[in-house]
Design brief:
2 copies of one chain form a homodimer. Helices cover 43% and strands 20% of the residues of chain A. By secondary structure, chain A is of the alpha+beta class. The first copy, chain A, folds into 2 domains: 82 residues, Arc Repressor Mutant, subunit A, CATH 1.10.10.10; 44 residues, Ferric-uptake regulator, C-terminal dimerisarion domain (Dna Ligase, domain 1), CATH 3.30.1490. In chain A, strand 1 and strand 2 form a beta hairpin. The structure holds a DNA duplex.
Amino acid sequence: MASIEVHVNKARVFCEKKGARFTSLREKVYALLLQQEGAIGAYELLDSLKLSEPGAKPATVYRTLDFLLEFGLVHKLESTNAFVACHHFDCNHPVQFLICDSCGEVQEIQSEGLKETLNKQAQSVGFNVIKQTIEAHGLCISCK
Amino acid sequence: MASIEVHVNKARVFCEKKGARFTSLREKVYALLLQQEGAIGAYELLDSLKLSEPGAKPATVYRTLDFLLEFGLVHKLESTNAFVACHHFDCNHPVQFLICDSCGEVQEIQSEGLKETLNKQAQSVGFNVIKQTIEAHGLCISCK
DNA sequence: GATGTGCATGTATAGTATTCAGCCACAAAC
DNA sequence: GTTTGTGGCTGAATACTATACATGCACATC
C-alpha cells in the first residue's frame, strides 16, 4: 500500500491541474482522512485537526470537506454521516461502498454494472439520475 | 389510489398479526407520513403531530419512527435524513428510491436485479450484505 | 495602489438524534 | 385481588451534525 505522502502529492498535482489550490488546511484534512481506517465523522475529524490547527471550528472542517468532496478526493457516507478518503480520484468512476458493521472498515467498489442497472431502472420510469448513493452494510470477509 | 384509511387499516392488521401494538400514536404518525407528498423530516413531522398531540417531543417522534422502521411501514432516506411511508410493507421487497431534486417526489422501486447485482459484487470480495441503501437523486419525469 | 477573487476566521444558530429517569396501563402469575 | 413484569409513553436534557453570515486576509491583476 502506497504511503500517505504519495497520495497527498497526487492530490496536490490533481488540484493544481484543475486550477484549485491545495492549501495546507486541505492537505491536512485529506491526510487525516487517508490515515484513517474506515470512515470518520466531521467532529472527530475536527478533534484530530485541532492538534495541528487549534483554532479550527466546525465550519473550518465542513468548508474543507466541501472542497474535497467537490473534487472527488473524499466521499461522504450518507448512511453514517461520515467521510472517507478516495484513493483514485483521477479516474471518473462510479462509487459504491461496503461498510462493515463490525469492524467499521469501508471498502469502495466501482461497479459500472451496478450504476448501469440503476440508471436503466430509473429510465424505465422516466427518471433522470444525476447522483447515486449506494451503500451496503454487513460483514466484511474478516468479520463474518 | 387507495385512501389513507385503507392503508392504515392494513397496517394495523399487519402489526397485530405480528403481535405488535398499533397504538394511536403510531397510527397518527403513519397516517401523517401517508398524507405526505414525498418525504418529510422528523421535526417537520413533529410539528404536524403536535396539532393533535400537543405534548409530543422529538423523542416521541423518533421512538414511533423506530417502531415503524422496524416493521417496514416506513423507510428512511439516508441521503436527506427524511422519512417516507411504505405502501406495501407486507411483501418482503428490496427497496430503492428515486428522489426528485426539483419537486421532492420520492418514488420507491423494487428491483430484485439491482439487489442481486450489489449482492454479487459484494460476495466477490467476500462481503456479506445485510442491509442496502440505494438512493438516486435526479429529475423525475414531470420535472425534466 | 486599487480591486477582485478565493480562502480563512469567528460567532451564532439551525437541524438531526439519543439518553435516561420515571410513570402508566395492561396482562400473566401468584 | 394484589404483585410483578412488560411495553409504551412522557419529560427534560444533551449530543451530534451542519449551515449561515459577516468579516478579514493574501495574492494576482490591472
